[in-house]
Amino acid sequence: MSFTGKYQLQSQENFEAFMKAIGLPDDQIQKGKDLKSTSEIEQDGKKFKITVTTGSKVMKNEFTIGQEGEMELLNGDKAKALVQMEGNNKLVAKLNVRGNELTSVTEVNGDTLTNVMTLGSLTCKRISKRI
Question: In this structure, are residues 81 and 68 in contact, taking their beta carbons and an 8 Å threshold?
Answer without folding.
Answer: yes
